[in-house]
Amino acid sequence: MTENPLETAPQYEPAAPTIVGVDAAIVIFGASGDLTSRKLLPALYSLWHDRYLADHSPIIGCARRAKTDEEFRNEMRQAVEAHGRRGSTTGEDWQRFAARLFYRQLDLSQPDGYPEFARQLEQIEAACGVANKRLFYMATTPDLFVPTIDAVSRVGLVPDRPSTAWLRVVFEKPFGNDLKSAQELSRELGRLLREDQIYRIDHYLGKETVQNILLFRFGNAIFEPLFNRTHVDHVQICVAESQGMESGRGGYYDKSGALRDVLQNHVLQLLALVAMEPPSFFRAKDILDEKLKVLEALAPGDASDVSRWAVRGQYTGATIAGAAVRGYREEDRVPPDSNCETYAAVDVRVDNWRWAGVPFYLRTGKRLPRRVSEIAIQFKLPPLHLFKTVECEGDICELVGARPNTLRFRIQPSESISLSFSTKQPGMQYQIHPVAMDFAYESQFSLALPEAYERLLLDVLRGDSTLFMRNDELEAAWRFLDPVLDAWGRDDRGPDLYAAGTWGPRSADTLLRRQGRAWQAP
Fold first, then answer.
1. Residues 198-242 pLDDT 10s
2. Burial of 142 (0-12, 13-18, 19+ CB in 10 A)
3. What angle, 0 to 180 degrees and rounded to 10, lies between the N-to-C axes of helices 69-83 and 41-49?
4. Please, what are the domains in the chain?
5. Nearest-CA neighbor of 318 among 500, 498, 504?
6. Which residues pair with 363 in a beta bridge?
7. Is residue 198 within 8 Å of residue 471, measured between CB atoms?
8. What is the pLDDT of residue 392?
9. What's the CA gap between 206 and 216, in Å, rounded?
10. How many other C-beta atoms lie within 10 A of the C-beta of residue 331?
């Protein structure tokens, strides 16, 4: 009997990719804060565990409190166990990682302490075998951004020009409170750093589904031709939070509000990714250039009056699942007469050829029914309504037509992409029935999704700025929203009220109802 050569041939198994860990000294300024323990150290441990971070890369935490290396290591061990993706910190793995953790006491507001800090940093780098490669993470309040960078520059820790030595500095939001303060911050940082050394982080851009928007649009020929005014009726972007002012955030939030805290950065960045043109090349500069064009083309839905296209709300006390929930003005560290908005909704247009006339409805808020972030792209109905069905609610039934197709990108929780469409209901008549095709990461892939900070920190180490905001993007976003902030600042009526646990004030529903539309339930 002749052997089948296909059965006897050796099976091909692709080789596992070789991962070369990036080596650099990572310095976290403000390391005693919540961000370091909840996000940064767990992310760095995962990167090291997966071999993306070199064994000999030191991680140095800096803050005003006195602390030994051993105390810092113990605290970070507890943080990684509580918040990390990589589970247990028992055994040899943690010991090897912890050996590269250091802590140095430094009052960031006192320039006199930086010469000694620079000496100790260089000493640690020499002992670990890392030279002239540094990542500085500013896990501090914005008022310390410029003084800290000015001080490290004065002690020679900022390279003068591109060379084998490099420094990359990550800045957490907020990046200013309005256009003027953002421009001032950019000027001051521009005095001390080049733009290619500045990484303005938005953790939303590190989420897997957000990154997949680009591949979904530009890697699938059947979808990209539909992303335009001919086929899309409107787009909704929702970033909802069910929590209120936990962890004493009232003091910070009251100076920020929903528009500055979420909509100006997270939501507008999502809009830019959905609406941008295909880049000529998949490179950071080309992608950022296309996002900038979208942000510069933003226009209000109704320019005659801000209240016609922008709504602000504030949650009041309510009972949710049998528990009493405080209103915003009763929260800790919030003034009892505060007019800060905890909800913001805007009707935005992208004034360009592709999207002319298509509304983009954006909303974000605190104390909404669910924690969910989602982009819903609703397509236009067919020109002829050929098929109908009977839908009943209780004893009331009515004849209805097809529902519009909707493409949803679920960003959190349970990242997924789904497409709804109509199909024939089984039976002897042509009756339509809405169904959905779903792609969920957790059911499709066995691998755990990397946390957003893991991806973003690795990109900084590699020098890839694709998922970070450029200065001109930042200013374009502020330029569009400044009129809203100005109008709300002059309006003594305050925000419209909504009960905690609901989807926002009635005025937000009216915003869409005037145009014959309604908010979709995520």
1. 999 999 898 888 988 999 999 999 999 999 999 999 999 999 999
2. middle
3. 80
4. 25-172 (3.40.50.720), 205-513 (3.30.360.10)
5. 500
6. 238, 345
7. yes
8. 53
9. 16
10. 22
Long-range contacts of 290-297 (CB under 8 A, 24+ apart): 291/473, 292/470, 292/472, 292/473, 292/476, 293/352, 294/350, 294/352, 295/268, 295/473, 295/476, 295/477, 295/480, 296/476, 297/350, 297/351, 297/352, 297/355
- Label each residue of 1-31 as H, E or C: CCCCHHHHCCCCCCCCCCCCCECCEEEEECC
Map tokens 């909303």 to a residue: 363
- CA distances 157 to 57, 163, 209, 348, Å, are 17, 14, 37, 43
Task: Give the span between the Cα atoms of 290 and 309, in whole angstroms.
Answer: 25
Helices 145-154 and 179-192, axial angle in degrees (round to 10) = 10
What is the 8-class DSSP label of residue 172? P
Active site residue ranges: 266
The whole-angstrom separation of Cα 425 and Cα 343 is 40
Can you spell out the DSSP letters for 322-390? TEEE--GGGSTT--TT----SEEEEEEEE-STTTTT-EEEEEEESS-SS-EEEEEEEEPPPSS---EEE
- Give the contacts of 249 (CB within 8 A, at least 6 positions apart): none
Q: Containing H/E element for 496? A: strand 496-499
- For residue 511, CA distances in Å to 361, 486, 515 come to 9, 20, 8
Give all strands (DSSP E) within 118-253, no chain letters: 133-138, 166-171, 198-200, 232-240
Note whether 85 and 54 are within 8 A (CB): no
Say what percent of the chain tops pLDDT 70: 90
- Estimate to the nearest angstrom the gap between the alpha carbon of 86 and the chain centroid: 22
State the average pLDDT over residues 177-182: 94
CB-count burial class (<10 Å; 0-12, 13-18, 19+) for 439 = middle
Using the Cα atoms of residue 140, residue 146, residue 149 and residue 150 in order, give the sign of their dihedral.
negative
3-state helix, strand, coil in the chain (%, to 5): 40, 25, 40
Burial code (b: 16+ CB inside 10 Å, e: under 16) for 367-377 equals: bbeeebbbbbb
Q: Which residues partner with 420 through β-bridges?
A: 406, 436
- Omega of the bond prior to 174 within 30 degrees of 0, cis? yes
Pairing of strands 198-200, 101-105: unpaired
Q: What mean pLDDT comes out for the span 358-377?
A: 96
Between the CA atoms of 260, 265, 268 and 270, what dihedral angle is there, to the nearest 10 degrees?
A: -140
The Cα–Cα gap between 277 and 290 comes to 6
Helix (H, G, I), strand (E, B) or coil at 101: strand
Contact indicator for 108, 62 with CB cutoff of 8 Å? yes
Q: What gap in Å lies between CA 87 and CA 235, rounded to an integer? A: 38
Q: Quickly count: other Cβ atoms within 10 Å of residue 280's Cβ.
A: 11
Closest CA to 349 of 302, 289, 287, 288: 302
The residue assigned the tokens 């001109």 is 472
Is 90 exceeded by the pLDDT of residue 402?
A: no
